[in-house]
């Protein structure tokens, strides 16, 4: 068989390939020749063939069939064979393949070899791909080599010990005696690897960390010698003596000084020397300064030293290298909470980074700018951030707008400034703001009573002819509907009033309704605003009626429902229209979790699904529009029932029914008994010492309200002895799957003519295989004896996934509500 080509010739041949297919063909041809050579047990050229195979492996072609040949080379007595064999083992083998265990004995023999270079090969291989089994078997040999006087072997043994500790942490104490004299070594290679070994041991064991804290003075001395030593050509990099060793020592000092006053005190002086004496014109010096800054910030350093560190980061911001600027911004972002005033000194430089062309630097600068905003600089910072919002890429606009909203809410110097800022954001980036931006601005405007005329005039000007920013159009529509009378009266004192007629206001809102850019939600805002103007305007009521009636046949179901209800208000309940559409009261901002919020939609308060969590003490839900929100949550013994405003006529209270639902009633509205507004019926009204509920729900059958995905919800019923209008529903939730359902939450909502109270559940976990149930009590007040309907929402975790489902329950037995 002819001699195979040399590695150099193979590389030259492969590089002549013009296409990927041509290269692949060459590789396949050579692999076939190598396989044939392996099958013939050709020992003469095995080393050459494995070397070529490793080159192919580096190009990305499969070379696994050479694994056993690597083991044969390792077992060879020739150094050249061992070198290629160990290199092949490091590239082609790992601990996931059992073949690597066959190397253990060879490595053990080579660790005890008489030639240091063979020992070095074995140490490198064990430190690169040794499994936990190999590390346990060979740790003793590594520990012996760590104590040898040969510097070449000690540095390789130290790195191999690091790998052994990572694979088998319990062997850490074996290397402790060998570490005593490592830092006394003059050889920089041994010093470097020794520091790496000490760092690994300190990071993995608190006991080792305490033990090695006594080495801080010695480490400080080594670092000082490196700084003060003269030119050393062997270790010099750009005029700095062994920067790699300096960086490693600084990292170890950071670990040793963390949360330790004595160690931190011992290293303060040397850190100050490194920070002031290191040359910054080269990247090598910047690397050392960066590690110094991280160490200063992580240990219990003096305040002056921390200011020095932040000033170094400030100098980094002026560097032409983008990587250094990015590192500086990231580091300042981490330290801004602890050293806010020191970082504030570099505010102008940070703001300038917002104009950088690099998107990563822009993002870090934006995040840091928001972290620097406070009550003293809010106006200047917002000016810069709003300018950035105008010119930044689309991927930044959502985060920037959200940050501006939060900062303005926290530090706004005045309500007018707050409103102007949010309006500016909506004008610039309205399509990118969060969903809660619209209700939050509406709430802010509502609560700023002196700014109503100014705000509605500004919003009117902002949307003239431009409906592209939907959130802005929604807020403007809401305000024009709510404060349209102030807009046409021209009573704005803050700026020159605009002369607007009723017809012009309606023209704008109708344009919003028919605009192709208007979303369904925006059209809902506009239609509700037009309806509200029927009580604010005097000359255009007929036009409003006509617009509302047109949308009664809209293909948009939401818009159609609103229009039908508003038409009914005009025709059947015109005497109630002024009370229903009166101006919104001041809104209380209450922080809530999940679906218990009162959501602002189209200028109206609509109930979200009620949650079973009890409200905080002292925060009682109230209702400003009587009976519009007859949902009751919480688990107090005496529920809180919304009371009617005294300004409304008593006769109107019983007629504020669900308008759409009332259209479907067979009986006339007058036949429905009206509850007394001055004394609303409490859910547990008239309770005395007698039993509250019937012990046996005689004649009321139970129902299955929900059954899906192994979850079953059953309702059983009881009627109150003292108040026949109260129905008590006990839910029982069971789970037929093989795994428990956790974090189970049951929520319910009923029509507005009912009142509902949820008590606390018996548990939040439903056991598997129907071995247990969760029970929860619902109390429903139904004074008008209407058919009971309920919408339920279920959330729970099952098989590692969050589940959620909605369902309608309309099959209540007549005995439960008649």
From TrEMBL:
State the source organism's domain of life: Eukaryota
User: Region Disordered: what ranges?
Assistant: 597-619
Carries keyword Transport?
A: yes
Q: Which Pfam families match?
A: Adaptin_N, Alpha_adaptinC2
> InterPro entries, per this entry?
Adaptor_Complx_Large_Subunit, AP1_complex_gsu, ARM-like, ARM-type_fold, Clathrin/coatomer_adapt-like_N, Clathrin_a/b/g-adaptin_app_Ig, Clathrin_app_Ig-like_sf, GAE_dom
Q: Where in the cell?
A: Cytoplasm, Perinuclear region; Cytoplasmic vesicle, Clathrin-coated vesicle membrane; Golgi apparatus; Membrane, Coated pit
Indicate the segments forming the GAE domain, all copies.
698-813
Keywords, sorted A to Z: Coated pit, Cytoplasm, Cytoplasmic vesicle, Golgi apparatus, Membrane, Protein transport, Transport
Give the GO biological process terms: intracellular protein transport; vesicle-mediated transport
Q: What is its main location?
A: cytoplasm
Q: How is it placed in the membrane, per its record?
A: Peripheral membrane protein
The keyword Membrane is annotated on this UniProt entry: yes
Choose one Gene Ontology CC annotation of this protein and give it. Answer: perinuclear region of cytoplasm
Functionally, this protein is described as follows: Subunit of clathrin-associated adaptor protein complex 1 that plays a role in protein sorting in the late-Golgi/trans-Golgi network (TGN) and/or endosomes. The AP complexes mediate both the recruitment of clathrin to membranes and the recognition of sorting signals within the cytosolic tails of transmembrane cargo molecules.
Homology family: Belongs to the adaptor complexes large subunit family.
PANTHER family with a match to the protein in the record: ADAPTIN, ALPHA/GAMMA/EPSILON
Q: Under what name is this protein listed?
A: AP-1 complex subunit gamma
């Amino acid at each position: 068989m002819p001699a195979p080509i040399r590695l150099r010739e193979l590389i030259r041949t492969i590089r002549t390939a013009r296409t990927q297919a041509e290269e692949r063909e060459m590789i396949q041809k050579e692999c076939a020749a190598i396989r044939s050579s392996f099958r013939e047990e050709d020992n003469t050229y095995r080393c050459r063939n494995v070397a070529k195979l490793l080159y192919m492996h580096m190009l990305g072609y499969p070379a696994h069939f050479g694994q056993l040949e690597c083991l044969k080379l390792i077992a060879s007595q020739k150094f050249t064979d061992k070198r290629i064999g160990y290199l092949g083992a490091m590239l082609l083998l790992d601990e996931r393949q059992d073949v690597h265990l066959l190397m253990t004995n060879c490595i053990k023999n080579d660790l005890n070899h008489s030639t240091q270079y063979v020992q070095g090969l074995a140490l490198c291989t064990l430190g690169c791909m040794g499994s936990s089994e190999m590390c346990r078997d060979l740790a003793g040999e590594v520990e012996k080599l760590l104590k040898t006087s040969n510097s070449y072997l000690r540095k390789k043994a130290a790195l191999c010990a690091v790998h052994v500790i990572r694979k088998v942490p319990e062997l850490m104490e074996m290397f402790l005696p060998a570490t005593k004299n490592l830092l006394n070594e003059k050889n920089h290679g041994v010093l470097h690897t020794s520091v790496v070994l000490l760092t690994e041991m300190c990071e993995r064991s608190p006991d080792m960390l305490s033990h090695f804290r006594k080495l801080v003075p010695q480490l400080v001395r080594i670092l000082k010698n490196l700084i003060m030593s003269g030119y050393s050509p062997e270790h010099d990099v750009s005029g700095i003596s062994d920067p790699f060793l300096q960086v490693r020592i600084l990292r170890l000092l950071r670990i040793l000084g963390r949360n330790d006053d004595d160690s931190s005190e011992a290293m303060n002086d040397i850190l100050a020397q490194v920070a002031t004496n290191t040359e910054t014109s080269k990247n090598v010096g910047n690397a050392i300064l960066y590690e110094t800054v991280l160490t200063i910030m992580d240990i219990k350093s003096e305040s002056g030293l921390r200011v020095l560190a932040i000033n170094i980061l400030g100098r980094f911001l002026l560097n032409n290298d983008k990587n250094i600027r990015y590192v500086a911004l990231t580091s300042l972002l981490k330290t801004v909470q602890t050293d806010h005033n020191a970082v504030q000194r570099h505010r102008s430089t940070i703001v300038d980074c917002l104009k950088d062309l690099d998107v990563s630097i822009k993002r870090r600068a934006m995040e840091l700018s928001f972290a620097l905003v406070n009550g003293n600089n809010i106006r200047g910072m917002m000016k810069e951030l709003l300018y950035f919002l105008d010119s930044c890429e689309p991927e930044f606009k959502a985060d920037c707008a959200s940050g501006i909203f939060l900062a303005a809410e926290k530090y706004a110097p005045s309500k007018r400034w707050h409103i102007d800022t949010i309006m500016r954001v909506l004008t610039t980036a309205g399509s990118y703001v969060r969903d809660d931006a619209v209700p939050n601005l509406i709430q802010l405007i509502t609560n700023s009573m002196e700014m109503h005329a100014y705000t509605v005039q500004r919003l009117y000007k902002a949307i003239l002819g431009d409906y592209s920013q939907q959130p802005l159009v929604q807020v403007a529509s809401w305000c024009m509907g709510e404060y349209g009378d102030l807009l046409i009266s021209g009573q704005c004192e803050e700026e020159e009033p605009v002369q607007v007629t009723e017809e012009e206001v309606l023209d704008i809102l109708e344009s919003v309704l028919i605009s192709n850019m208007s979303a369904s939600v925006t059209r809902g805002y506009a239609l509700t605003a037009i309806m509200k103007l029927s009580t604010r305007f005097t000359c255009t009521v007929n036009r409003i009626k006509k617009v509302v009636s047109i949308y009664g046949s809209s293909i948009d179901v939401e818009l159609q429902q609103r229009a039908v209800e508003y038409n009914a208000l005009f025709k059947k309940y015109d005497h109630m229209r002024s009370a229903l559409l009166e101006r919104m009261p001041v809104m209380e901002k209450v922080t809530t979790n999940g679906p218990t919020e009162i959501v602002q939609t189209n200028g109206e308060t609509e109930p979200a699904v009620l949650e079973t969590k009890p409200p905080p003490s002292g925060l009682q839900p109230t209702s400003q529009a009587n009976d519009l929100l007859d949902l009751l949550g919480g688990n107090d013994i005496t529920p809180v029932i919304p009371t009617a405003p005294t300004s409304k006529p008593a006769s109107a209270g019983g007629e504020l029914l669900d308008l759409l639902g009332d259209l479907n009633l067979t009986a006339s509205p007058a036949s429905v008994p009206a509850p007394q507004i001055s004394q609303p019926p409490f859910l547990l009204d008239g309770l005395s010492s007698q039993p509250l509920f019937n012990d046996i729900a005689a004649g009321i059958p139970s129902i299955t309200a929900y059954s899906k995905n192994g979850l079953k919800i059953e309702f059983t019923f009881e009627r109150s002895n003292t108040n026949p209008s109260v129905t008590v529903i006990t839910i029982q939730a069971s789970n037929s799957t093989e795994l428990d359902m956790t974090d189970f939450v049951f929520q319910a909502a009923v029509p507005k003519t009912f009142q509902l109270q949820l008590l606390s559940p018996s548990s939040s976990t439903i056991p598997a295989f129907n071995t247990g149930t969760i029970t929860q009590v619902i109390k429903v007040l139904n004074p008008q004896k209407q058919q009971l309907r309920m919408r339920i929402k279920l959330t729970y975790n099952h098989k590692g996934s969050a589940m959620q489902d909605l369902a309608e329950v309309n099959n209540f037995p007549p005995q439960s509500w008649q």
